[in-house]
User: Which sequence fits this backbone?
């Protein structure tokens, strides 16, 4: 069996987007100390003083945005039946990794 780094193996549950599937490259990025620091950076400011259970960090926002292009492309493929969803998934993975897409 060949190793495929862009295969969606890891699943995270997001409060807004539901289940987000990540590949090994995205998961390795999340495991870096720079990204882990974002989990301690709140986006709510003083709102957390009023709503104690509110949890909205920059890392959770970024994690939700990782799955968004893949979600948009897959929904477009379902609605218009114009492309193979597997091809769209591959394009989304390449777009997420390559800055010159």
Assistant:
């Amino acid at each position: 069996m060949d190793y495929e780094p862009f295969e969606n193996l890891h699943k995270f549950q997001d409060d807004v987007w539901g289940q987000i599937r990540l590949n090994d490259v995205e998961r390795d990025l999340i495991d870096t100390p720079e990204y882990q620091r974002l989990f301690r950076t709140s986006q709510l400011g003083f709102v957390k003083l009023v709503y104690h259970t509110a949890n909205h960090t920059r890392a959770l926002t970024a994690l939700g945005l990782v799955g968004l292009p893949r979600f948009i492309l897959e929904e477009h493929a379902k609605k218009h039946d114009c492309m193979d969803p597997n091809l769209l998934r591959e394009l989304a993975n390449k777009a997420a990794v390559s800055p010159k897409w």
User: Anything to note?
Assistant: The CA atoms of residues 6 and 90 lie 8 Å apart. The first strand starts at residue 10 and ends at 14. Residues 58-80 form the longest helix (23 residues). Strands lie at 10-14, 18-22.
